[in-house]
């Protein structure tokens, strides 16, 4: 009998293969067990950005604005997560 342990590697592989929903489920499972996992949270944000890129093409101007906003939000989340990490 084997027990399936969700890993970020598995989630990344799923996302690269186009199974974004499967990747998101794996990352959410990781975060339910370890809510403070910064790497998992960053991957979840990255997966969200991937899905945003797969939507129908907006105009060049709105695409740039939304990309900048998404990247700023992602960066802010990473910076906040690092502020809460224990000192090494």
Could you characterize what this model shows?
The protein is mostly helical and 88 residues long. The protein has one domain: Serine Threonine Protein Phosphatase 5, Tetratricopeptide repeat, CATH 1.25.40. 73% of the residues lie in helices and 0% in strands. It contains four helices and no strands. The chain has helices spanning 8-16, 20-33, 38-54, 60-83. Helix 1 (8-16) packs parallel to helix 3. The chain is flat and about 45 Å long. The model has no long low-confidence stretch (mean pLDDT 80).
Number of strand segments: 0
Order of helices and strands: HHHH
Strand content: under 5%
The general outline is flat
Integer-rounded radius of gyration = 15 Å
Low-confidence stretches: none
CATH hierarchy, class: Mainly Alpha
N-to-C CA distance: 37 Å
- Total count of domains: 1
Q: Supply the number of helical segments.
A: 4
Instruction: Report the structural category.
Output: mainly alpha
Q: Tell me roughly what share of residues is in helical segments.
A: over 70%
Q: How confident is the prediction overall: mean pLDDT?
A: 80
Described by strand count, sense and barrel closure, the largest sheet is: none
**What CATH architecture do you see?**
Alpha Horseshoe
- Which fold name fills CATH's third level, the topology? Serine Threonine Protein Phosphatase 5, Tetratricopeptide repeat
């Amino acid at each position: 009998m084997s027990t399936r342990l969700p890993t970020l590697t598995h989630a990344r592989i799923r996302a690269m293969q186009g199974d974004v929903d499967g990747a998101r489920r794996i990352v959410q499972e990781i975060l339910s067990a370890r809510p403070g996992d910064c790497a998992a949270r960053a991957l979840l944000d990255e997966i969200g950005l991937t899905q945003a890129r797969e939507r129908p093409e907006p105009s060049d101007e709105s695409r740039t604005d939304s990309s900048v906003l998404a990247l700023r939000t992602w960066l802010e989340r990473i910076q906040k997560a690092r502020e809460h990490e224990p000192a090494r």
